[in-house]
Predict the 3D structure of the following.
Amino acid sequence: MPPFFDFLSLGIGFLIFLLAAIVLPGVFIWIGLKVIGKERGVLRCGMANLAAFVITSFVAFILHFTPLVIVLPLLGFLIYLYVLKTLLDISFIEAFAATIIAGVVIFLVSIALLLIFGVWMLFFTPPPMQIGHPRF
């Protein structure tokens, strides 16, 4: 049996991934809702986001076998917004605004991480060894 694979046959890695898949998107949706003035919990936002993703994925799987596959990206986004709206008790426009704000926050966080790790790679990594001239 592999290590860390003894808790209900799921494994600690899967549980950490599941918790991260609920909490991290929930934080970004929570930030979007905070910006527009709505108070919801982070776990509630995360569970609503996960449920909206699962429902939208199921509907998209079914619609892939129809001619509606042409408009599926737009239809999938509208279904996602509707489920998010229903589960978080907000309006459709508020769900749209929270989703757009969450996307902007994710973009800004990724740019900040890119800058941090880019500077680290430039200044704190050792120079590469030249082939044929190793230093010991």
